[in-house]
Amino acid sequence: MKKFFMILMLMLLAVPTSSAWAIRLKELVTFEGVRPNQIWGYGLVVGLNGTGDKDKVQITNQGIANMMERMGMTLDPGSLKIKNAAAVMVTADLPPFVKPGSKIDIVVSSMGDATSLQGGTLLVTALRGADDNVYAVAQGPLSVGGFAITGNAASVQKNHPTVGRLVQGATVEREVPIRWTGKESMSVKLNLPDFTTAARVAEAVNARLPGASARPLDASTVQFHVPTNYQENLALMVAELESLDVTPDTIGKVVINERTGTVVVGENVKLSTVAVAHGNLSVQIREGVTVSQPGPFAMGETVVAPETDINVEEGADQLLLIERSTTIHDVVRALNAIGVSPRDLVIIFQAINDAGALHGTLELM
């Protein structure tokens, strides 16, 4: 664990300072109207080897009865006893600007008590959006990254066999309408809202597009005018803006996962001068029994007596002074000088924060 912490700190030391760490605008923002849409639908998976829904799952029997009725057969859902089919929910993300005829990936999840979807085939399923229009149609054999084998007295399962995936398993039938021409103004949304980053984005846009009058509306939105020569060709303007280099600003944060003992220190974290002493207390308890047995032909009785040995050791760590730190490099050197484990750092950071010497946000997971 200590070795892992040292590697983590070396990686942090290798990170360049913020003044030289520019990122393309396309990694920082989302352009107005350019977003995926969620679609979903109810379907049936058939061809399972006895691992489908049981008789008590009415949605499966009713779905099969409805499907067969469309094929000219009338069945009573209550009389069906089918173990090779399962009711599923099919979900997918419809990317922006996708055209009819394109293929997209889908995820198929069991809705009933099926034990596995392995080897099943999804029947034709219409995928609808929030407006109840059909945007894609899915069908095909499932790919399940796991299995479940059950016997009379034991069972073996790997991963999650009741969720499958179809790579390019759905065909797009309808395009999501996006107004992409004739716009006089446009906005971008920051993936991580920050006032300083928003101001830097506006400055970069103004430098690339003179007259755009880009300005941050809040911590996550930057609005600008679309030049006349780009109003009928927004794609070209967006392509130019995506390549802009912007240096994002980040807050000083220490993220601690107490369950795993993981500590991640952000770049802008600073420490005031503070003295830290962290001693280790080790307690060892050994228990056993002592048997006292009388000699031959003696009239005594065998006695069994418990025996406990307690050993307490306390570390001889001295009070160490951590000087005021102005960069992440200083913080790492100061913490390495203490020579503690990551789990000890969890307690130390909490104590430094309580003392008011940690200048940053302490986040516990």
Structure keywords:
6-stranded antiparallel barrel; disordered N terminus; 4-stranded antiparallel sheet; 35% strand; alpha+beta; Gyrase A, domain 2; 365 residues
Task: State the distance separating the first and last CA atoms.
Answer: 19 Å
User: How many individual helices?
Assistant: 7
Unreliable stretches: 1-20
What percentage of amino acids are in beta strands? 35-45%
Query: What structural category characterises the helix and strand content?
Result: alpha+beta
Outline, from the CA principal axes? flat
How many E-type strands?
23
Provide mean pLDDT, rounded. 79
Instruction: Please give the domain count.
Output: 3
Major sheet description: 6 strands, antiparallel, barrel
Order of helices and strands: HEHEEHEEEEEEEEHEEHEEEEEEEEHHEE
Strand order of the largest sheet: 3-4-5-10-7-6
The share of residues in helices is: 10-25%
Structure description:
With 365 residues, the protein is α+β, with helices and mostly antiparallel strands. The protein folds into 3 domains: 24-34 and 179-246, Gyrase A, domain 2 (2-Layer Sandwich); 37-172, no CATH class; 253-293 and 302-364, no CATH class. It has helices spanning 2-13, 25-28, 58-70, 195-208, 234-242, 328-338, 342-354; strands at 23-24, 29-31, 37-46, 85-94, 103-110, 121-128, 134-141, 147-150, 155-158, 163-172, 185-190, 215-216, 221-225, 245-246, 253-257, 262-265, 270-271, 274-276, 281-292, 303-314, 320-322, 358-359, 361-364. Strands 3-4-5-10-7-6 form a 6-stranded antiparallel barrel. Strands 2-11-13-12 form a 4-stranded antiparallel sheet. A 3-stranded mixed sheet has the order 16-15-23. Helix 1 (2-13) packs antiparallel against helix 6.
